[in-house]
Write a structure and sequence with these properties.
Helices cover 66% and strands 10% of the residues. By secondary structure, it is α+β, with helices and mostly antiparallel strands. It has one domain: Outer membrane efflux proteins (OEP), CATH 1.20.1600. Strands 1-2-3-4 form a 4-stranded antiparallel β-sheet. Helix 2 crosses helix 7. The longest helix is centred in the middle third of the chain and has 67 residues, at 148-214. The protein is elongated. The N and C termini lie far apart (108 Å). InterPro entries: MdtP/NodT-like. It comes from Bosea eneae. This is TolC family protein.
């Protein structure tokens, strides 16, 4: 071995050793992440149990799927409640499972980001009539090794944010399912009320028909009663259509199909609970809202990314290249003899990508502006969360008062009016027109009362989820559309 090749060999050995040492230090500092046993859903499970008192699972194999299905089947044996509907949705909704798969993707990206960069190997052969050259090389990124701890920390922060987003998906599904459950039960109650009212008008219509045939009532009053009965039939058909639509929307939230669609539901909404007093709702929302935690996590993530950008602003990449070359040649001498020569060389190259026309200012400015954008959005969200909490509480209080007004005052008075109108009609003090007007007004009031109770339970759900996140404020339909259908509560 020539002195030059010996020197080249020593340089190559030292460089490789340094590269290996640097890789080991980077691994120790960065820490190779490993996959979690629960697939990263632990945060979602904790929040679901703490805030909802519900269980959440990620379907990873047939055993877990079978256990979840058995739990759903057990819940479906009884009429659905709001709580059981939420639990079924959390166990069987495939959209939620897709969100957990997204979390698994984020975890895989975190693990990959915590690993040292793979070296790149190459081999090339150049041959001619009298010469052969074989070159072997190994390339490793020193830049990627040096920044491995920082990149691993950023990846961990990104995964933690993904865990909060999965928890947010759980809370949103729970809120949407609970509200849809109340809409569906209200539609059932409305159909029940219309069927009861229709049964009464059918009997009255048969009576008016016989009185008309005997001449005991004129055709005008008879036609008014027939028209009222026909209108009520159309309203009943519309209520049944809404009932089927609301049920199908609930089915989609629950993630059910096939034989599971035969689940039973109650015919009326639960009674109004005692009004809850709420203190410091703004502070509680700021402390517990998952979307606030996500925004804070994104801000911390950008802060870490900005630090990495500051470190690497002048150098884009640094590669260590180790090359070994083997040359073999033949030379034909004048006397016809062939002289063979062999040469082996080892070299080490360092390639540095330095931005000549942009000294990193654009990268730093981009990172800084992105960070300030996230900071301003966090501040905006904090303001909005305070407002949403107050709005949800106002809606909760107001809808409770409205529903209570219908139950305690409007509906009892409407029943008195119709009962007295019936007595006066029997005594021939009023005609059938006034009787029909009072009956129609009572029907509309009952439907409005049903909608008021439905809106209270939706507002109650909105208020709860305005404090923890995952819900949307303003889910009530309002009693102004009462005449169009949808509601509950027994007839008064």
């Amino acid at each position: 071995m020539t002195p030059a090749s010996q020197s080249s060999y020593r340089v190559s050995t030292i460089a490789v050793r340094r590269f290996v040492l640097l890789a080991g230090v980077a691994v120790l500092l960065g820490g190779c992440a490993t996959f979690s046993a629960d697939g990263g859903v632990g945060t979602a499970q904790t929040i679901a149990y703490t805030e909802l008192n519900k269980d959440v699972v990620k379907i990873t194999d047939d055993a877990v799927a079978g256990s979840a299905k058995a739990r759903v089947d057990q819940l479906l044996k009884k009429p659905l409640t709001a709580d059981s509907a939420v639990q079924i949705a959390l166990l069987s909704n495939r959209g939620l499972q897709a969100a957990f798969n997204e979390l698994g993707i984020a975890e895989a990206q975190m693990v990959a980001a915590s690993l040292p960069p793979n070296p790149r190997f190459g081999i090339a052969k150049l041959s001619g009539r009298f010469e052969v050259e074989i070159e072997r090389q190994i390339v490793g990124s020193i830049f990627a090794l040096a920044t491995l701890p920082a990149r691993a920390e950023v990846a961990r922060a990104r995964f933690q944010n993904a865990q909060l987003r999965a928890a947010e998906a759980v809370l949103k599904l729970a809120a949407d399912t609970r509200k849809q459950y109340y809409r569906s039960v209200a539609a059932n109650a409305q159909v029940g009320f219309y069927e009861q009212a229709k049964s009464s008008t059918d009997a009255a219509t048969q009576l008016f028909k016989r009185l008309g045939e005997s001449g005991g009532i004129n055709k005008l009053d008879q036609a008014r009663e027939f028209a009222f009965d026909a209108e009520l039939g159309a309203q009943l058909a519309q209520a049944r259509l809404q009932q089927r639509q609301e049920r199908e929307r609930l089915v989609r939230q629950l993630g059910l199909w096939g034989g599971d669609l035969k689940f039973r539901m109650p015919a009326s909404l639960p009674a109004l609970p005692r009004l809850q007093s709420a203190k410091a709702v703004e502070a509680e929302a700021l402390r517990k809202r998952v979307d606030i935690q996500i925004a804070r996590g994104e801000l911390d993530l950008l802060a870490k990314s900005l630090g990495l950008t500051q470190i690497t602003r002048f150098v884009n990449d640094v590669d260590l290249l180790g090359r070994r070359t083997y040359d073999r040649s033949r030379t034909v001498l004048a006397d016809g003899d062939v002289e063979r020569a062999t040469r082996r060389t080892r070299t080490v190259d360092v390639e540095i990508d330095i931005p000549i026309f942009d000294f990193g200012q654009s990268k730093v400015v981009l990172a800084e502006q992105t960070y300030m954008q996230a900071a301003n959005r966090l501040a905006e969200k904090a303001v909005n969360v305070r407002s949403e909490a107050r709005e949800a509480y106002v809606g909760y209080r107001a809808s409770h008062d409205i529903a209570r007004q219908y139950i305690n005052n409007v509906l009892p008075l409407r029943k008195i009016i119709q009962d007295e109108a019936q007595l006066q009609y029997n005594g021939m003090l009023i005609d059938v027109t006034q009787l029909i007007v009072d009956a129609r007004a009572r029907i509309l009031s009952n439907v409005a009362g049903i909608n008021a109770r439905r809106d209270f339970w939706i507002a109650h759900t909105d208020f709860k989820h305005a404090l923890i996140g995952g819900g949307s404020v303003g889910g009530g339909a309002g009693t102004a559309v009462a005449a169009a259908g949808g509601g509950d509560a027994p007839a008064h």
